Amino acid sequence: TFSFLGGAGGSPMKKKHTYESRRLLLAGMLGCLLVLAAVVSWCYYSASLRKAQLLKAEQLDLNKDGFIIRNHAGAIVFSMAFRSGTLDLDSCSKDGNILSCTRSNSGKLNFFIQTVRPKDTVMCYRVRWEELQSAQVVEHAMAYNDSHWYGGAEMATQYWPIRFQGEQEPQPFITSDVYANRNAFGGILERYWLSSNATAIKINDSVPFHLGWSEKNKTFRFSAWYQDSPFRPPAGTQAFPELSYRVCVGSDVTSIHKYMVRRYFPKPIKVPSPEVFKKPLWSTWAVHKTAVSQEKLLRYASDISKHGFTCSHLELDDRYTADYGEFDFDPQKFPNASGMFKDLRKAGFQVSLWTHPFINYDSINFGAAVENGLLVREPSGELPALVRWWNGIGGILDFTNPKTREWYSSHLRMLKHRYDVTSFKFDAGETSYLPRQFSTAAPLADPSTFTRRYTEMAVPFNERAELRVGYQSQNISCFFRIIDRDSVWGHELGLKSIIPTVLTVSILGYQFVLPDMIGGNAYPNRTTGDLYSDQGLPDRELYIRWLELSAFMPAMQFSIPPWAYDQEVVQIAQKFTELHENLVAPRVLELAGEVLDTGDPIIRPLWWIAIDDEAAYKIDSQFLIGDDLMVAPVLEPGKQERDIYLPAGRWRSYKGEHFDKGPMYLTDYPVDLDEIAFFTWVH
Q1: Which of 184, 268, 280, 414 has its CB surrounded by the most CB atoms within 10 Å?
Q2: How confident is the model over 38-67, as pLDDT tens digits?
Q3: Per-residue pLDDT tens for 404-458?
Q4: Domains of the chain
């Protein structure tokens, strides 16, 4: 029994040995685990480090949710977030200057960022996100990054810099008539934006591009999709959306813009007629609207001469034909058109005629246009698509069809030769006048290509032609008119919108700008009232301030004549048309010649010469002509003074004062009703 009990209990020494060895074993295992964990951590850290290095390009950091770009000083100047999907970073690799990934959280894709250094001071990044599996939306959100942005499109309510208000879901970035639809993008637009951080972005032509914004998140929303949009995938390809663009970073805002314009924008190939830069153009539109007639046109011309004004040409606007879509004079309103043109020529007047892309269904040309397939058709291609425009219902000419182009051009040539017409005012041309669903002779992947095709019709007449639309049309080399203005003071198509709109279209590469008619169009219910509004005229003070601003634009355009007011207005108008011809036009023509090589604006923002000046980025009521003439018009009612910002440098005012302590503000600088403040750079 004893031995049995002893055997069961074991000796105390033996127990101690077992306990020690267990502890040693545990410690050894723990040590091994720690070493293993350290090795795994080190490997993971090394892999992460390698991955982090892999996901860096020069001054760019990529992660699954987006990328940032820094400038040479290390500050973040550009941020883009991927809104529609995230990258699977394990699918990413780097080969030379190309970073690419093959998967996102929703499947296969083709994603890359290619780094290009085109010159010492510029770094560019080509970015592409192409879905390969699902036909969903691709959306990237670009942050404002506490900088000021410029470019994009003409808008009804135009601010400089861009001021997006509220939350806007992305909508097709295509040309629209913003007079009719105040929330759309305008008739002149390009897929280009520029920031005061010296960064610029250009969206590729192949993208089915939609633009939205968020005031709350301070972002631009760039989206690409085909479904239920006016964009069409190229023939024979699947409708997988692709968002691709170039971002370039430079040393300052002016030099990066110059680089982008030289690299990516077509340039005009000739300067339009110097006469139009020097002498005002006189239009029948605001003064006579569609009630114009032979008698009224002849009286208008004789009044211009009688009051001692010069005229580059008279513009005979809507409506001189019997129906819309015809190319000859209504014999009721113009009983002797040939004699009228002869009289006008004798009196020294050249005349241009209004034209447009519509043929109304009640016009004698409608049947022939249908028969010959000249019109945009409904999707099956069988029948013409009817559209509604501001003068009724009709078909719209299909300028992708060579037959249509020749038919339209031959009618314009006939008018030119029969009456010795000098040129044409090409109205409309926005894609918003195309039907929602349509087909054209040449398929349109991007509907704004229709705008481009229409602008080409102006080429044979470009000496004095006028367009109001532009998309990749900078090389058409004619005058581009900003959309009709209302006779009001504010930012919504009023006097205050002119400088921001002209600066915007200039940044988009359109330099031969017509700022629309002095005083606005005097449309009923869209006119600021005073004692003249009972006569259908714009407010007198508004008209004078508008006239003064127009004198410092590339060209002046009258319709409501100064003598509709009083002798004082006539004298102010004579003074400013002379100032325009003698002071402004020579400088503008010199700059117009340079545009052919550089594409640089004629009308420039203050930051063009004040690149690190935060105040200059925000000024929307002053502008430069070239680098050395600065203009500060009065744009407020009842004011005979204004605050003026002078950038650094030596300036001489139009009154002869010298200022050389800049940058500085001149507060409440006096400017009489018959004056505009302007300053010349003193070298």
Answers
A1: 280
A2: 665 655 555 554 555 568 888 999 999 999
A3: 999 999 999 999 999 999 999 999 999 999 998 999 999 999 999 999 999 999 9
A4: 57-264 (2.60.40), 280-355+409-436+445-600 (3.20.20.80), 623-681 (2.60.40.1180)
